[in-house]
Write a structure and sequence with these properties.
312 residues, alpha/beta, five-stranded parallel beta sheet
Length: 312
């Protein structure tokens, strides 16, 4: 640590690809680095079944393996990873005071790379049956549904990818899409033709998740064209309708957010508070890709080094 034993050079919030990549660079620059993660090391990338578009892996790589490799590399150079939640950040000039579930921690610079969380439908039964038939991660929970029927909600890349992954287990999948077309890429849409067990339902809302004896039994929707209710008998529901930025802990920090809660930065990936940087999916303007998150993490590390040299 710098100056005194209780001040880190860099504290990173979130242990996803952006922070782990950034830590590889900061530690190699001899900057003491600690990363706080409240959930899964590797972030949402680690819960993704298979990643085909990350450079350097011609045959693709599992999200779990990529996350583990990034973690091991960061730790090899000296980064410390703490399992705990950051509750707030206070700028006191020469350093920042970061409130965590383990108490206050001081750091000369902060990198926020908290990524996003799964967006909820907000319909009856969703909260009641969470983890009892309602899920947001196919790789985490898909294996519970061998030889079962499933409903997948969403029309984007994640929904289509995860629906195809779930065919490893389920015998039938109803893919419910609110709009009249997919939001997924053409490549993925064409891939769906290889999975006859997936039945697509366009122009259909998801209104309620119904269960009995603590288990999900059906999803109730509405056909937007006919106005009629539609029942989808199912053993489980997987929801992939987008992501929400993990920025709730910044509420009283003064850090500027955009209209949807993403963190605003300048060309140096620095927020409006000097010494507080941001990289990855939680940054306003990010491209929401793992490859770009790791690149931003590396860039942020170099900008942090310059900031610390200037303010030493």
């Amino acid at each position: 640590m710098s100056e005194t034993e209780d001040i880190w050079d860099v504290l990173m919030v979130g242990a996803g690809p952006a922070s782990l990549s950034s830590a590889i660079y900061t530690t190699r620059e001899d900057l003491s680095t600690v990363i706080y993660e409240k959930g899964v090391i590797g972030g949402l990338a680690s819960t993704t079944d298979w990643i085909d578009n990350y450079p350097g892996f011609a045959e693709g790589v599992s999200g779990l393996e990529l996350g583990e490799q990034l973690q091991q590399q960061a730790e090899r150079f000296g980064a410390k990873i703490e399992l705990g939640e950051v509750l707030g950040i206070k700028d006191v000039g020469k350093y920042k005071i970061i409130s965590t579930t383990d108490g206050d921690v001081k750091a000369r610079a902060v990198l926020i790379s908290t990524g996003s969380d799964y967006k909820r439908l907000g319909i009856p039964g969703e909260a009641e049956y969470y983890a009892k038939g309602v899920h947001y991660c196919a790789t985490c929970d898909g294996a519970f549904y061998r030889e079962k029927r499933l409903v997948v909600v969403g029309g984007g890349n994640s929904a289509v990818q995860e629906a195809m992954f779930l065919t490893k287990y389920a015998i039938h999948i109803d893919l419910i899409i609110r709009g009249d077309k997919f939001r997924a890429s053409e490549v993925l849409i064409h891939e769906l033709d290889k999975f006859p067990m997936i039945k697509v339902h366009m122009n259909t809302t998801t209104d309620e998740i119904v269960g009995s004896d603590g288990k999900v039994t059906k999803v109730v929707g509405t056909n937007k064209k006919t106005g009629k209710k539609v029942d989808f008998p199912t053993d489980g529901v997987f929801i992939f309708i987008g992501l929400l930025p993990n920025t709730g802990f910044l509420k009283d920090t003064g850090i500027e957010l955009d209209e949807i809660g993403l963190i605003k930065t300048d060309e140096n990936l620095e927020t409006n508070i000097p010494g507080v940087f941001c990289a990855g999916d939680v940054r306003s303007g990010a491209t929401m890709q793992i490859a770009s998150a790791t690149g931003e993490g590396a860039t942020a590390a170099l900008k942090i080094r310059k900031y610390l040299e200037k303010n030493s």
